[in-house]
Write a structure and sequence with these properties.
Order of helices and strands: EEHEEHEEEEHHEEH
Largest sheet: 10 strands, mixed
EC number: 5.4.99.26
Distance between the termini: 28 Å
CATH topology: Pseudouridine synthase
Protein name: tRNA pseudouridine synthase C
CATH class: Alpha Beta
Radius of gyration: 18 Å
Function: Responsible for synthesis of pseudouridine from uracil-65 in transfer RNAs.
Organism: Dyella thiooxydans
Number of strands: 10
CATH architecture: 2-Layer Sandwich
Number of domains: 1
CATH superfamily: Pseudouridine synthase
Keywords: Isomerase, tRNA processing
Length: about 230
Amino acid sequence: MIEILHQDDALIAVNKPAGLAVHRSKMVGNAESFLIDELRAQVGDTVYLAHRLDRATSGVLLVARSSEVAAALGEQFMGRDVHKDYLAVVRGWPEPAEGLVDYPLPGSRDTGPRREARTRYRRLATVEVPIPLGRYPQQRYALVACAPETGRFRQIRKHMAHIHHPIIGDCQHGRSDHNRLYKQYFGCHRMLLHARRITLRHPLEGTPLVIEAPLDAAWTALLDRFGWSIEGA
């Protein structure tokens, strides 16, 4: 069952699990299950995607209950009236602790001309683990809050890699040696990027709507192990 975070006559917000593709596309290869199909069966009605999350990313995903609502939500996303907050675990300790990555990115599938892309980040917590890797006897990691101001393909993943702090578990833009370390020592087999919160105007009522998605077991286990807290983040 897909976890439903919010449901009304206009839209449904779900907590997308990591590893579940949102819909059929060439990008997901031989995936056999898709969130949009499972949700249609679960609610017994037609639903329409309002936006997307990468297959490896978890967290808040909005689904419209009509094509008209999907179009209205799309206008909010295009107009940058929707605020999205993500959590990520990255290699290293970003300096400065808070900043803006302003680096143009190409469109979907890395094709086409580069377009403006901006992501704000804020370092929430750090840890140093006594595990040798390469020429370093200890490894540094950070819990980071990310807020994309634009909506380019894999934007947060590419921007964190661009500033040399790739997201743990990112097979395309991350570090395979650190990904393996997390699997071996921490039993973490997912990409550590979570769409924690989304803030928008209700497409019919016009009132503010804030939806949050809880973390899964892999995330909470790491927070406990590293002594990290997301209270107030």
